[in-house]
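User: Could you go from structure to sequence for me? I need the amino acid at each position, not a summary. Structure tokens:
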């Protein structure tokens, strides 16, 4: 008992003081070899919030780790809750159900929270968890709007908690090695990078307001978001396409590749962002663009562009989603845990591949083994008191780039930005999208 208390005290009081050597930073381990690397018998007690899709996949994966006890599953919808409990059971665990996140965070036998609820919950739940002394693994996009991202950094630092964002590419070993090569100049100075995401999503139709099903606590589902009537084409998953709760394809998927680009370019905040697009393919309740271009400029140094096609999955460069960096001496291409380097004559000069298959359309777990690398990094960051690979501060900067793209699209302006912090300069029409209003009683305070 005593050792337990001491151990929990240590895990809770750990302060984030340095970026230790990230696991796998040599880039030569296979994802599978990460699995049991922590090697001590100290176990981290985790809970998961939101288990219809991603949460069920991740909870199962966390539960498989020998240093984790998946103690609680939290959901506000009955079938999803059962799915989460079943996922933990499949991994050999047995979790308790808890429907209310506020009650969950009061549990003393809990070290960390995995947040897989819809986007409008990410920042409020992260801040609540940090205040309750729990470490956080929060799914991407880290926040619903830029102001929330800044609050999340403050919360992580003020309460000394580890906050890892589910930008799992940051822990993919071969990609880590590739980014290192990019930083070391394998294609010289990089001045342009582009990313794309494609899918073949159908229409969500024209929904209607209907009574809330008895199996759903819609009040708690909405939580921090101001109340709206329940519609029959919102839950699950389709909330992604409504601005009130979701953030569109740009943040749903663009966040991953834009983060790889910002990491590869080694840049922080941009000087200009613009965006065009629309809901072209179907005329239905879907509010966010299904076809979108976002252009991000970093002064006179480099340009980034993202193309999102939610309803036409024709590949670009042989991939449904990917990233290419263009530099003085060639191009660097990636899209999974591998990379290729071309010279200026289009000759393939380096190719590092793995047998990791990424199913970008699998909303539960695009690659189970590669998720393990990111989970292991999170657990190691807790135990070794260091920043994780996708620390909230880094991921806020990446998420901000696509958030600014959406703000440019919503306001119709080309945004001018302060390159020291990414803030919008002198544009009240765009500034209104920097933050949101909250349901009274749910405001975020630190
Ligand atoms: N990193 C990745 O590769 C990856 C992959 C898929 C999804 N995601 C992210 O995971 C998140 C969830 O996506 P999804 O596809 O699973 O969505 P989903 O709508 O299928 O599931 C969300 C779940 O959260 C639950 N929920 C809502 N409010 C809750 C509350 N107050 N307490 C507890 N549970 C609550 C819902 O009932 C539902 O079960 C999204 O933010 C998404 O961007 C990340």
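Assistant: Here is the amino acid at each position, in order:
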């Amino acid at each position: 008992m005593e050792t337990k208390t001491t151990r929990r005290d240590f895990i809770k009081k750990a302060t984030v003081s340095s970026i230790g050597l990230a696991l796998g930073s040599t880039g030569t381990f296979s994802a599978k070899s990460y699995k049991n690397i922590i090697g001590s018998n100290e176990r981290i007690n985790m809970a998961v919030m939101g288990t219809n899709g991603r949460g069920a996949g991740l909870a199962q994966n966390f539960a498989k780790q020998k240093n984790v006890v998946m103690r609680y599953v939290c959901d506000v919808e009955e079938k999803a809750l059962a799915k989460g409990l079943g996922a933990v059971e499949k991994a050999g665990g047995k979790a308790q159900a808890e429907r209310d996140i506020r009650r969950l965070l009061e549990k003393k036998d809990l070290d960390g929270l995995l947040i897989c609820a819809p986007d409008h919950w990410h920042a409020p739940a992260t801040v609540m968890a940090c205040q309750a002394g729990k470490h956080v693994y929060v799914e991407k996009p880290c926040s619903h709007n830029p102001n929330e991202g800044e609050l999340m950094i403050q919360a992580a630092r003020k309460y000394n908690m580890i906050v890892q964002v589910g930008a799992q590419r940051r822990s993919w070993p071969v990609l880590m090695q590739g980014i290192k090569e990019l930083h070391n100049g394998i294609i010289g100075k990089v001045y342009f990078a582009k990313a794309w995401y494609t899918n073949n999503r159908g229409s969500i139709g024209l929904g209607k307001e209907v009574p809330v099903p008895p199996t759903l606590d819609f009040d708690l589902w909405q939580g921090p978001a101001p109340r709206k009537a329940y519609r029959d084409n919102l839950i699950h998953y389709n909330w992604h396409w409504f601005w009130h709760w979701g953030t569109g394809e740009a943040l749903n998927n663009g966040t991953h590749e834009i983060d790889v680009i910002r990491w590869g370019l080694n840049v922080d905040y941009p000087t200009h962002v613009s965006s065009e697009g629309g809901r072209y393919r179907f005329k239905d309740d879907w509010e966010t663009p299904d076809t979108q271009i976002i252009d991000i400029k970093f002064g006179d140094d480099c340009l980034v562009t993202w193309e999102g096609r939610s309803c036409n999955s024709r590949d670009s460069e042989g991939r449904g989603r990917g990233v290419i960096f263009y530099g003085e001496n060639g191009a660097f291409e990636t899209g999974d845990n591998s990379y290729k380097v071309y010279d200026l004559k289009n000759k393939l000069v380096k190719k590092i591949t793995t047998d990791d298959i990424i199913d970008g359309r699998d909303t539960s777990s695009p690659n189970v083994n590669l998720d393990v690398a990111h989970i292991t990094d999170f657990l190691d960051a807790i135990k070794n008191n260091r920043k994780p690979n996708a620390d909230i501060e880094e991921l806020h900067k990446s998420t901000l780039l696509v958030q600014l793209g959406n703000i440019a699209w919503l306001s119709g302006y080309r945004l001018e930005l302060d390159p020291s912090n990414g803030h919008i300069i002198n544009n009240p029409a765009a500034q209104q999208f920097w933050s949101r209003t909250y349901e009274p009683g749910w405001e975020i305070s630190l």
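One structural detail worth keeping in mind: Residues 1-39 have pLDDT under 50 and may be disordered.
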